[in-house]
Design a protein that fits this description.
Layout lengths: L8 E5 L4 E5 L9 H5 L4 E5 L6 H9 L5 H7 L5 H4 L4 H11 L8 E6 L2 E3 L7 E4 H10 L3 E5 L4 H11 L1
Antiparallel strand pairs: 1-2, 3-7, 4-5, 4-6
Helix pairs in contact: 2-3
Length: 160
């Protein structure tokens, strides 16, 4: 089931010239109690070669169920909420931190805590390292246990 398939249609435009479009202003969410229950989901590590559709096909047998993964993980914009591929990340870092700026200090830490540069034992975290760590933090993806997929789909249809 494609996410917007069962969304209601609305008239858009003036009474003289209108179009019939999907009402995408509706938002579906998975109950927090389901997300908090570790029995209903499991973690995977998102790989560079994967897409949401690939994951949906691999785990749910249907690439159009990519939206379940996105809703489960609060992903709104797949271009910014998912990790960049290695080459994309390097291009992003090079454009954001031109020349040798990528090797400059983004911040300082001591024992895993953010500190000032003059703090005893402070270690610099480079811009490149910071961006790589931030990107890698997006790789942990929650997958809904396939047992619950039909319940999720039926609940969405019932809401619409």
């Amino acid at each position: 089931m494609a996410y917007f398939t069962n969304f209601p249609q609305v008239l858009y435009g003036s009474p003289e010239a209108y179009s019939i479009i999907k009402d995408i202003s509706l938002k579906f969410s998975i109950l927090p109690i389901v997300i908090q229950s570790e029995l209903s989901w499991f973690d995977i590590v998102y790989q560079d070669h994967q897409t949401m559709e690939d994951l949906a096909q691999d785990y749910y047998g249907d690439p159009t169920l990519y939206w379940v993964i996105m809703v489960m993980n609060g992903i709104i914009d797949p271009f910014y909420d998912l990790p960049l591929r290695y080459n994309e990340l390097q291009d992003y870092i090079d454009s954001k931190y031109p020349g040798t700026e990528k090797y400059g200090a983004h911040h300082y830490t001591a024992d895993g805590i953010f500190v000032n540069a003059d703090y005893p034992g402070a270690k610099a975290v480079s811009n490149e390292s910071y961006e790589t760590t931030l990107n890698d933090s997006k790789r942990q993806i929650k997958m809904m246990d396939p047992v619950y997929i039909h319940t999720i789909i039926n609940n969405l249809r019932g809401l619409l």
